[in-house]
Structure formats: structure tokens, C-alpha cells
Amino acid sequence: MYIDAHTHMAKYEENLYDVIKQIEENDILTISVSMDTFLFEKNQQIAETCKLVVPSFGVHPWSATHYSYKLGDLVEPLKTASMIGEIGLDFHFVEDVEKYDHQRQVFEFILEASKEMNKIVNLHTKGAEVEVLEMLQKNKIEKSIIHWYSGPLKHIDKYLELGSYFTFGVELLESKSIQKVFKKIPDDRILSETDNPGAWEWLKKEIGMPELVLEVVDKIAELKDISTDDAKTLIQKNFYQLVENDEHIDPEIKNRLSGKLY
Questions:
Q1: Model confidence, pTM
Q2: pLDDT digits (tens, 9 = 90+) for 40-57
Q3: 259 falls in which pLDDT band (50, 70, 90)?
Q4: What number is the average pLDDT over the span 106-133?
Q5: Four-point Cα dihedral 86, 87, 89, 92, nearest 10
Q6: Can the peptide bond before residue 55 be classed as cis, meaning omega within 30 degrees of 0?
Q7: What share of the chain is helix, strand, coil (3-state, %, to 5)?
Q8: To bridge 43 with a disulfide, which of 19, 55, 180, 248 should be the other Cys (CB 3.0-4.6 Å)?
Q9: Pairing relation of β-strands 28-32 and 53-57?
Q10: What SS3 state is found at 52?
């Protein structure tokens, strides 16, 4: 299977039929993160139509100001979701420092719940790599996916010590700085992503489609000097390693992952 460990299915609009068709034709296990409760509901609806889509609940740091005063609204979706994300902090794209405490409140609340429920978290760290790391350490988070890391290389080892996995997406295709990050990550912690539909649009002014993950895996193979099939298997093994003992992940998904490996 291909693994897209971070995408936003609920952000697609009129072309959702074609998106699901690409996922099914290419056998892409798709972790669809949410930025708020509304998008989580949409992700749940999409997942009902495609078994390869796993809806994940989170409040993105860009949405945190809407939830910092009503944290109770997050309890039920946190219980419902099999994975948690996209969550974290953003001190780069969010320039208004008055919003940072709102981000911290929401992130801390969700991290505490995730730890208590023993759920995997999918993390946004842009411009806040040190503080996110410290909060993971404080809450003893051992199962995390670091999405599109572009921060200082010196912090990577600390994330790895916590057991974090790192996703690489479409920017890996061309960015030398992201390729430097990639070279710092051990083989057994690498995952692929697309951050569709917005990442490709941000880079190339085109809506990103699921098949982009095939190009990402090809690039991973090139950088590792291995075959595409070996890269695909490596990423699948890594994702299976992450979810194998997670009681919240659908057993059918774990069976499909393991069945294609052994």
C-alpha cells in the first residue's frame, strides 16, 4: 500500500469523486486530518464512502482562537477519532502574538487527552519546534507524526528520542532544505504525505491530488538509492510499526498493512 500520512480530504470540493477514485485505484491508505470540528464531521462522512480514508480529529493552531474558550466541545470528537491531528503550534505563519496563548491552551488540552486515551498525534510545528518538543516531553507523548518539519536540524534527535515519525511530502521533490531534513531521519522513522489539496497549490498553483504520493515515494527511493518498491515497503512497514499495537486503529486496516508486508 501507499501511505499518505497527512492530508486534508475535507478541503476538497467538487472533485471529491475523482480524489476517492485515485485513492482506491492506487491503494493509498489516507490519514485525513482535521482543522476543526466541522471538517472532522466532513472527514467522517468521506470515510464512510472509502475504507482507505482514516478520519483524524484535531484543532489546527490557525483555528485555536475559536476553541480556547470552549474546550469542552472537543471532548466528544477526541473520544470518537482513532487518531488525533492536525494539532500543534504555529509561530511563523501566525504573526499575531496575542493568539499564541490560545494555541497553547488548545494544544495542551488535546495533548493531555491524547495521552490519556493513548492516541497517535499528528503535529504542526512551524516556528515553534522547541515549544512543541517541550510539550511532548512534558506530556510524555510517545506516538507522534511530525508533519512537514522544516525547523532547525539540531532539534530532530530530541524528537526521535520521543519516538516521533517524520512525514515528507511534495516539497521534498525540489527543496534542498527539506532534503537535508530527510537525510537526518533514520529509515525506520520515515513516512510519506501530500498535505493535499493545499500544499501543491501553494507550491505550484494547482490543486494537489492523491497520486502525488507516488511521486513523493519515487523521490524517497531516489534519495535513499533504493527501488520504488523498496521505498513503498519501507514506508508501509514504518506506518504498521506505528499503529500495530494501537487499539484505536481499525483491525481491518492493520490486517491489510501486515498482509501486504509478510
A1: 0.97
A2: 999 999 999 999 999 999
A3: confident
A4: 98
A5: 10
A6: no
A7: 55, 15, 30
A8: 55
A9: parallel
A10: coil
The three three-digit cell numbers of residue 151, written as one number: 525547523
Rounded (5°) CA angle 144-117-71 = 90
Q: How far apart are CA 139 and CA 257, in angstroms?
A: 29
pLDDT at 261: 66
Buried (b) or exposed (e) across 51-64, using 16+ Cβ within 10 A?
ebbbbbbbbbbbbb
Residue 122 and residue 33 in contact, taking contact as beta carbons nearer than 8 Å: yes
Q: Which of 32, 31, 110 is nearest to 67 (CA)?
A: 110
Domains detected in the chain: 2-259 (3.20.20.140)
Query: What pLDDT digit, counting tens, does each position of 164-199 carry?
Result: 999 999 999 999 999 999 999 999 999 999 999 999
* Residues comprising the chain, all counted: 262
Q: Which three cell numbers stand for residue 77?
A: 470528537
DSSP strands (E only) in the chain: 2-7, 28-32, 53-57, 83-88, 121-124, 144-146, 165-168, 190-192
φ and ψ at 247, to 5 degrees?
-70, -10
User: Which pLDDT band, with edges at 50, 70 and 90, does 115 fall under?
Assistant: very high
In the structure grid, which three cell numbers stand for residue 6, read together?
497527512
Integer angstrom CA distances of residue 124 from 52, 129, 141, 215 = 23, 9, 15, 23
